[in-house]
């Protein structure tokens, strides 16, 4: 059994700052600091609407939550000194661990301790099932004859992330007479994680749920934080729920079978964390991008861990996206327009986000909020990660505008965007920007 993880350090600390001249929610994140107490964070949030402060708090007392610890136990040592890490997502009674490491699917006790009840439904797709389903069933049942495992295998692809295909999960669960004490297990990338999570949130009004993410995208982002859902033909992820898993199990060995294009797609979200809140991590990526692309195991493990720490901390501070969490959507408003406008699955999520990040950065520069060295660095790192730096040629200004108008971040008709502002690692989530800059950006990136 793994040694209990102890908080060794508070690796990252979110710093929110106010700027009274800014009628927006502003996040300043100058330099990581170590906090004296895990219960005190010198964060200040100020939300202003139409110049009137609607909510403000001077030093917020909030628990800083993302802690991680090396976990080494005898069984792991015996396996060949494979170390694993646990990042805790601290959400009170809904807290859970993210296990990160090589060979974790060979450690049945990690999964089994989070299975509630005797029935398990593994939700996966045809691609992933062929490689990992047997291994996961073995991990769920080894030494544990009490548990019976069913599986439902969905077609593979973003275009199947919809209500019709979701129904297949409910069909299987109901036909198998699963009850409230069952556990759903998501085995696959972000599409499977989002669908299985949403199914778990709504089947019998909520059953236990475990994430086993198998893509970089899902290991660094989508499996953590409890956002679940499906697409509508008019917009991405418009139907869904916040629903947290019991645990996330990241076996980094699963990345060995991931296609190169999918690996690069996930790196878009890794780059995002650096840009919005972790300049040091961005600098590390600038040096280590060749290693990440070459799948160096220790570089990948570090990038996954640090991304999970960033995500866990943001989610712990703002689970239901009242402000801070929205910053994780840097590039996504433009990116979702590409995914929806160009056709689900044509461009991978991370590819669309990469082009979206470039557009958000371009707009931030036009507004005079960042200097051109940041624009160049973002261009360089995305190119190095083999990600696109312009949207598809067929995207028009009108296509962007019509899809962006139904984005979830539109509030009272105001299109709020995540933009970079200040030194590297700082961003704002705001509807208070010059519309001309948005128009100029759209025209700069679209032929029509
Ligand atoms: N919930 C969130 O917070 C959140 C965050 C980011 C992205 N997302 C969502 O995640 C989705 C994208 O996720 P994704 O990039 O993982 O795409 P995906 O789930 O479509 O997986 C990518 C491809 O890789 C295959 N695959 C998965 N694991 C594999 C493995 N180990 N070996 C070989 N092939 C493997 C899949 O079958 C698929 O073909 C989008 O729908 C996006 O909206 C959600
Ligand atoms: Zn994303």
TrEMBL record:
Record localization: Plastid, Chloroplast
EC identifiers of the protein: 4.2.3.4
All copies of domain 3-dehydroquinate synthase C-terminal, residue ranges: 266-410
Primary localization class, coarse: plastid
Cofactor: a divalent metal cation; NAD(+)
Top-level class of the enzyme under EC nomenclature: lyase
Entries under InterPro entries matching the protein: Dehydroquinate_synthase (IPR050071), DHQ_synth_AroB (IPR016037), DHQS/DOIS_N (IPR030960), DHQS_C (IPR056179)
Pfam families for the chain: DHQ_synthase, DHQS_C
Record domain 3-dehydroquinate synthase N-terminal: where: 152-264
Source species, domain of life: Eukaryota
One of the record's GO molecular function terms: 3-dehydroquinate synthase activity
Pathway: Metabolic intermediate biosynthesis; chorismate biosynthesis; chorismate from D-erythrose 4-phosphate and phosphoenolpyruvate: step 2/7
GO CC terms: chloroplast
Gene3D superfamilies associated with the record: 3.40.50.1970, Dehydroquinate synthase-like - alpha domain
Catalytic activity: 7-phospho-2-dehydro-3-deoxy-D-arabino-heptonate = 3-dehydroquinate + phosphate
One annotated GO biological process: amino acid biosynthetic process
Keywords per UniProt: Amino-acid biosynthesis, Aromatic amino acid biosynthesis, Lyase, Metal-binding, NAD
Family stated for the protein in its record: Belongs to the sugar phosphate cyclases superfamily. Dehydroquinate synthase family.
Functional summary from the UniProt entry: Catalyzes the second step in the shikimate pathway.
PANTHER family in the record: 3-DEHYDROQUINATE SYNTHASE, 3-DEHYDROQUINATE SYNTHASE, CHLOROPLASTIC
Protein name: 3-dehydroquinate synthase, chloroplastic
């Amino acid at each position: 059994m793994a040694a209990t993880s102890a908080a060794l350090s508070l690796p990252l600390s979110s710093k929110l700052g106010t700027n009274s001249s800014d009628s927006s929610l502003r996040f300043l994140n100058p330099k990581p600091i170590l906090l004296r107490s895990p219960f005190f964070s010198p964060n200040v949030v100020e939300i202003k609407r139409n110049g009137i402060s609607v909510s403000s708090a001077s030093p917020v007392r909030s628990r800083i939550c993302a802690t991680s610890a090396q976990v080494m136990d005898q069984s792991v040592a015996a396996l060949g000194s494979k170390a694993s890490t646990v990042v805790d997502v601290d959400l009170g009674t809904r807290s859970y661990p993210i296990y990160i490491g090589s060979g974790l699917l060979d450690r049945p006790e990690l999964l089994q301790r989070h299975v509630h009840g005797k029935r398990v439904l593994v939700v996966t797709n045809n691609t992933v099932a062929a490689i990992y389903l047997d291994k996961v069933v073995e991990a769920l049942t080894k030494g544990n004859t009490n548990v019976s495992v069913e599986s439902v295998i969905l077609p593979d692809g973003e275009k199947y992330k919809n209500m019709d295909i979701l129904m297949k999960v409910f069909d299987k669960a109901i036909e198998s007479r699963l009850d409230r004490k069952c556990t759903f297990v998501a085995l696959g990338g972000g599409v499977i994680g989002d669908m299985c999570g949403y199914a778990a949130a709504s089947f019998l009004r909520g059953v236990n749920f475990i994430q086993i993410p198998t893509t970089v995208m899902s290991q660094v982002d989508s499996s953590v934080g409890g956002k679940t859902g499906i697409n509508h033909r008019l917009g991405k992820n418009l139907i869904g729920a916040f629903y947290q898993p019991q645990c996330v199990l990241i076996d980094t060995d699963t990345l060995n079978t991931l296609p190169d294009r999918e690996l690069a797609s996930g790196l878009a979200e890794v780059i995002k964390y650096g840009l919005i809140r972790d300049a040091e991590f961005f600098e590390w990526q600038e040096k280590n991008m060749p290693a990440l692309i070459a799948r160096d195991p220790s570089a990948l493990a570090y990038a996954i861990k640090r991304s999970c720490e960033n995500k866990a901390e943001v989610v712990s501070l703002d689970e239901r996206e009242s402000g801070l969490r929205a910053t994780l959507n840097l590039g996504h408003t433009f990116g979702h327009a590409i995914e929806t406008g160009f056709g689900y699955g044509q461009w991978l999520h991370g590819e669309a986000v990469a082009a979206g990040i470039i557009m958000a950065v371009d707009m931030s520069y036009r507004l005079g909020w960042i200097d051109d060295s940041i624009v160049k660095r973002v261009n360089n790192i995305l190119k190095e990660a083999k990600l696109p730096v312009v949207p598809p040629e067929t995207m028009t200004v009108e296509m962007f505008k019509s899809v962006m108008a139904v984005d979830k971040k539109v509030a009272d008709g105001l299109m709020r965007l995540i933009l970079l502002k200040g030194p590297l690692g700082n961003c704002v989530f705001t509807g208070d920007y010059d519309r001309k800059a948005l128009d100029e950006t759209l025209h700069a990136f679209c032929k029509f």
